[in-house]
Amino acid sequence: MNTRKLLIVTVKQLLEKKKFDELTVQDILDTSGISRGTFYRYFSDKYDVVNTYYKEYVTENILSKFDGTNHISITTEILNFIYENKSYFSNIAFVEGQNSFCEFLYDFSYLAYKTNCLHNSKQNELSEEQLFKLDLITFQQVYQFKKWVSEGCKTSPDDVCRWSQDLIPKEFLSY
Question: Can you give the residue ranges of every domain in the chain?
Answer without folding.
Answer: 47-173
